[in-house]
Protein 1
Amino acid sequence: MSFIDEMKKKANTSKKTIVLPEATDVRVIEAASIIGKEGFANIILLGNEEEIRTLANKNGFDISYASMINPIHSEKYNEYVDAFYELRKLKGIDYNKAKEILKDPVYFGMMMVKQGDADGLVSGAIHSTADTLRPALQILKTAPNTKLVSAFFLMVVPDCKYGEDGTFVFSDCGLNPDPNAEELSEIAISSAKSFEQLTGKKSKVAMLSFSTYGSAKSESTEKVIQATNLVKEKMPELLIDGELQLDAAIIPEVAKSKAPESNVAGKANTLIFPNLDAGNIGYKLTQRLAKAEAYGPLCQGIAKPVNDLSRGCSASDIVGVVAITCVQAQMM
């Protein structure tokens, strides 16, 4: 059974309601059709109902399983406006501005999650990461005991003996451009928890660099070393090592040569990149050259499950992210 099939199976044990605020995109419509037939989640599509149905019919997609809500015609619209105004009035938002903002399907969807009318939200097919995460942070806030919101990709590499049978978490690949040592340590801790939450397997964290155990020295390598030490102080039980080059992190034969005493080298399944450049390039290379499934950017550190999509996503990618979001909602 594939990783995403496992996610769907878990999702089906306690069905959650997920909001898709980009219902004018044909990929989202197709994903809703697939999810409806497979039955592992309840889907709410936001937008003009007539336009959504027309788009579905034109492309031959059955969305009879999904609910559709036009934010400005919703019976909850005024309730959500009131609640949003109370959340943001000290930030200079007046009531009329709150009414205007809540016409945006992403903001309306976040309020659905905030008010408990949905369990999670998936967006990003036509919105930037910032346009998805800004309303999430304004409305849902960060999770308790979380210092930093970050983004990871769940990577599933076919016919791969490395990681957890080809399954990895890559982080941060979508949000924090150049985290300092403290921020990098928080990304590592959150990513380890995300890996274990989604796979049920023990996380083995590699703090990646272009250096292994001091083979090169720079401000960047020192940051990675400092971050590794911070994680060991905060979570001494966590399996983590660094700084490690990628080959030393995941290939046992290289690990024996470069880091023979490491308890992580050659076995890492959670890869922490030193900055967003490296993380974003790394996941896209793996996705395109290894034909890996790349699910994300998935968010960690927000109080409720909200996940971003790559704007190059397919309908099947959206289906996979919805399944993961359901499992995260179950865990919360």
Note: The chain is about 45% helix and 15% strand.
Protein 2
Amino acid sequence: MRLARILLIAAGLLAPGPGRAELVLVASVRTAAVEVSRERAENLYLGHATTLADGTPVKLIDLPNGTLRDDFYLKLTGKNPAQIRAYWSRLVFTGRALPPREASSTAEARQWLLDTPNLIGYMERTDVPPGARILQRLP
């Protein structure tokens, strides 16, 4: 069990190679200039925080279930898909937090990033809409 976790984390930490996407955390076009530390990003995506360090409330988006989403959570939190599902199930059941809003596709996530202020999402670097700000690279 421990070896499997170590291997999953190690795989998630490898830099993108041929065929692997470079994932980035991005702020919407209509968000004031912000900086988000990796720790704050993790706290946002684990439901521990709903605001930026300066107190600005933000909304989060998730991509649909799949490889990009799984890679994102593994790289940001070190949790695999089953762990993330169980984690969010507990938070929702106890009423402590709601998970990020799920886009039906990368195209929909891109559109939300163009239209919605104070929105943070993640996607492949090549899919970032013009004007959106890259907050973190997730190698």
Note: The first strand starts at residue 23 and ends at 27.
Protein 3
Amino acid sequence: MEMKIGKIPEMILKRSVLKQKKHRRAEVQVGLGSGLDASFIKVGKDETMVLSTNPVIASFCDTPEKAVHIAMNNIVVKGAKPIGILPTILLPPDSKEEDLRSLMQGLEKACDELDIEIIGGHTEVAVAINQPVLSITGVGKIKDMYRLDEGLKPSQELVMTQWAGWEGAVILAKDNRMLLSERYATDFLDNIEEETKNISVREAAKIGMEHGVKAMHDVTSGGIFGALWEIASAYHVGFSVDLKKIPIRQETVEISEFFELNPYLLTSRGCLLFVTEHGNELVSKLSIAGIHAAVIGRITANQDKVVINDDETRFLEPPKEDELSKAYK
């Protein structure tokens, strides 16, 4: 089967990746799996290491600082404390030493902000690529008593932070300024480009842990619909979500319409999805911290993945390529 740009479809992932791996080590408590995003390795009586790896293509990630935050998001949403990163840096043949130095300075700046360390890695000039690629492995640790692996139950509520598709809208607005200026006013585009959106979910995850959430999942490639599918797949549950309760900005709607994209399948780093017993209380705590959030649905007893829009009900399909990639074909 021919594969398209973006995340590997779940069917291919299960058939050609997950079915090929074997579990051999008792220390590996959570390993490779659909929607999991991080691995857990037992290292002590009551302590576990958490690891996650993320490849970042330069065209979709304008700073190395952003790449570090992307890697750390998968650590903090497991309730773990970040320790460090191991970056693999692949550069095209025309790269200069100054490019590498600048990239490393950006990585170190982000590590300083997060109080973590570069603890290893690899750097190489590769003939096979035509733009820089970062693959960052994040490392963290967690006390076993705080692990979020108890499973999910019907009636638990889904809470989402920030706005669906906003990261994708910002990228599209910056990369297509001249094209978009034919339809939209300068002020409209300036407002998007001047938006300094922090994609780190560290503060929101901390509030979630203090609140006692049952699960967290950062919303990345595939957007909010992709994240909903992934968390349901990881915990073997279903959900019912009200489309009109999903926070989305008007700028995202208009940019998506211009490129004929679905904003709910558009990359949304900086958004975090929670499962909790008390959704409104969590929304209130997040709001006090200046983090926009809303209750968008709940976990259901069956494994149906349902989105409701007024009187219309639809069933989500497994996530395919992120909508952002369609705009660059």
Note: Residues 97-114 form the longest helix (18 residues).
Protein 4
Amino acid sequence: MKELLLLRHAKSDRKADVSDIERPLKKRGKRDAQNIGVWLKTQHLIPAVILSSPATRAIETVKIIYEELHIDGLVIQEDSRLYATGIEQLKMVLASCPETIQRVLLVGHNPELEELLTYLVGEKALPDREKLLPTSALVHLSFDCPWADLHSDCAQLLSITYAKSLLQE
């Protein structure tokens, strides 16, 4: 079985006077990313590779998580196809993963991440929420097809973890 972790970047500073791609994280976003990183480590959900959007808020999220994981040699790949594109581009990025990789963390944006999630597991498998993936939401999926063969309803939803819920634990 392969596992895919989908993470929407942490909360960004919309008031920053920069372009969308350059928006940094807010203080809350940094705290949420740290909590997600700690949670990943305690759950032993260590990815073999991290694929990230080139947006500043995504890269900052990844760097904070990387620091919490303390894993030497963990590969981080920045890919422009993970910023402001559709699910076909996301699937192409995942299709480029070697078959030897068992767990991938993909850090990106909405609405693409929600669309990919819905495509992979089907709408009936998802919780009934107005906003399925707020910032710092982490989805854990499993599937048994090759990375290059991801298709509709191929994955099983194992969990959705919200950074806000980690603060209450």
Note: The chain has one domain: 2-167.
